[in-house]
User: What shape does this take?
Amino acid sequence: METQPTASHFIDGTFLEDPEGQDFESSYPATGAVIARLTAASAATVDKAVAAARAAQPGWAATSPAERGRILRRAADLMRARNRELSELETLDTGKPLQETLVADAASGADCLEYFGALAAGLTGEHIDLGGGPGGSFAYTRREPLGVCAGIGAWNYPIQVASWKAAPALACGTAMIFKPSETTPLTALKLAEILIEAGLPKGVFNVVQGAGATGALLTGHPGVDKVSVTGSVPTGRKVMAAASDGLKHVTLELGGKSPIIVFEDADIENAIGGAMLGNFYSSGQICSNGTRVFVHRAIKERFLERLKQRTETIILGDPMDENTQMGPVVTRAQFDKVLGYIETGSSEGGRLVTGGAASGDGLFVQPTVFADVTDGMTIAQEEIFGPVMCVLDFEEEDEVVARANATQFGLAAGVFTKDLSRGHRVVGRLEAGTCWINAYNLTPIEMPFGGVKHSGIGRENGHAAIQHYTQMKAVYVEMGNVDSPY
Assistant: This one.
């Protein structure tokens, strides 16, 4: 079962171990078997990674944008060619079904590399005409690399998150040091190998391992110019506090307690499918999940009846079996947390429609649906990060919009209705950074992704990501004589 990497860290194009680092293990959530043993990065190893990135970045920034793009596109091709290998490793590390990782993890990472590879040569500034006719003065802007970025990843989509952070940074001429979650450390090392094979210069993309202490070393390092984090709200607060001392650029993609609103005219089967995708995919471990499902009272019972039927057909089991649709949660701590929330939901008056228990050996939790949930219940307020759906009911549009917005979070939201005028109107009123109409949790790389309020700062993906990995320089060009009063 062990899939021991060549070494724990990848710095300046070379795998290396850290004799001073604390040992830790990566386990397969379906069985608990240890699949790898690694060491966390000490301060000395973080210093090496930062030094390598700072030394390599000027040459990378001087590389033509077209060539940077070609390297990223070659890396995308290599990822696609090795999709099964990467997917199997991702399944071992996360416990997500192979059925899912084959289409949603390394594949989406490849899409990201390809997208920003194609965008690289088009990263231009703006010409600003200041009047005066031919030969008149003008200004222009330049998008310049930030320098060195520290990327800190989450455990639910390890290689996707690594790609989402690396691709725009590298396209812009910025170097990166990436720290994957200590829970899922393996595929980031494979990404580093692939980038080097594709032609990326040594030192431009580095990987260091470890938990929060290693992340703090990166965040506070004076040689790091920007920090990009995917994680929890408490982690985001710590990163902002640490980065503020050096006035570093910060991008935060944090948690959520997102609403899905199902109006009485919605296609019920489509709405149920969206709600299931927004609650049970990746065993419910997705930050944008729509875990508060508001259903109009006119269709609530019909919705619940069909939802129960469809939920009870989900196949839990061996993640390596391609027939399996849902695997375990990622760790024992997460397993205990999710079951604790289920117990709380029942004790606070939620009606358990289906699920609500562990399943078999390993860290499996049945896909769970609560009905008759009210806004003040713990399960309606706090992010569970497991396969637990809360169904609430509503009567009026104004009412449901107000209730949907009554949370500290603002990552995502979904609206299901056949009335597209209403769909656009409601989306315009929802306090969320990423929204869907008649769909949920679909995140093509072309579409910016991120939240508002406590769900984050900045955006991943799309053209919007470019502004977070570059800094703007404005240049005034005087074509005549300076009109000076002196």
In short: The longest strand covers residues 138-145. The two ends are 79 Å apart (CA to CA).
